Amino acid sequence: MVGQELFIDFYGVVIMKEVEIKITGILGNKEWFRVKDLSEILSMGESTIWKMVRNNNFPKPQKITERLTIWRRQDILDWVNRKTAEITE
Q: Does domain 2-88 have CATH number 1.10.10?
């Protein structure tokens, strides 16, 4: 059903819903991610992610301890949705 709606309304809300479904499946049930997780999921190098954080082009992580930094699931989903919307506009 999603595929059929995608072709009918290619530039509308439907494509955003499909992207969200796909990335949600990729992220699984985890609520937080470390940089290594995001690197694998997004096919980006860890250094690229950190550079994007420094340049305010990627969500800021939360520092839990001195050696543990995480990103919240919803922050990553929001970022992917914003980036996807930029492409479809």
A: yes
